[in-house]
Fold this sequence. Notes:
Layout: H1 9-27, H2 30-63, H3 66-72, H4 78-112, H5 116-132, H6 134-149, E1 154-161, E2 164-172, H7 173-177, H8 184-191, E3 196-198, H9 200-224, H10 226-244
Antiparallel strand pairs: 1-2, 2-3
Helix pairs in contact: 1-10, 2-4, 2-9, 2-10, 4-6, 5-6, 5-9, 6-8
Amino acid sequence: xxxxxxxxxxxxxxxxxxxxxxxxxxxxxxxxxxxxxxxxxxxxxxxxxxxxxxxxxxxxxxxxxxxxxxxxxxxxxxxxxxxxxxxxxxxxxxxxxxxxxxxxxxxxxxxxxxxxxxxxxxxxxxxxxxxxxxxxxxxxxxxxxxxxxxxxxxxxxxxxxxxxxxxxxxxxxxxxxxxxxxxxxxxxxxxxxxxxxxxxxxxxxxxxxxxxxxxxxxxxxxxxxxxxxxxxxxxxxxxxxxxxxxxxxxxxxxxxxxxx
Length: 260
């Protein structure tokens, strides 16, 4: 058949059948799985990172606003204080939910596309991170605490600086330890804290250490899947080239019907 001539019904069916075959080969390829899970992994990381930054910024805004600090410590306006705390709780819950989603994506990626060697390396680095940085162990357990209690035991500390007033949004370690969900490194971390310890520095350190681990793993997955994704790219190009070879003729189905 002259490829410059419009497709007749028979040629169209042959073209469509071949397109579906190429698409099936692409979606069944190992490289396509890498594309999919790396993409989902990346989106989940970006969502968590945005939530993490927003929570840290909210804590900072509370601490550096003298009026907010005073209202948070005011016994005379409990409704206003409760409203401010609810805003903080909602953002903290949102951040921890995004963290849980990211951890779930990591577990899935480890199970579906990572080699046993890479999984072992990730587990080793994860254990080292938790052991060397108690904030990581604590925040991950704090996530479970928030999901269970829906609110955190916030405490505000006031600091009178030359010419201005600052505050610190703290967590009550005694109240947290009353929950039996803290264990291991997270429990040791809480026992080492003052009754009210600043949360923002802990959150920031957790974000730095956890980001290092996650970004290392994401790049390791990319490197491991390089060859498979290169093969998938050839299949993708074959799909595009075959799709673009379609030349409509009068009465033939439109090109958009090629996907079936």
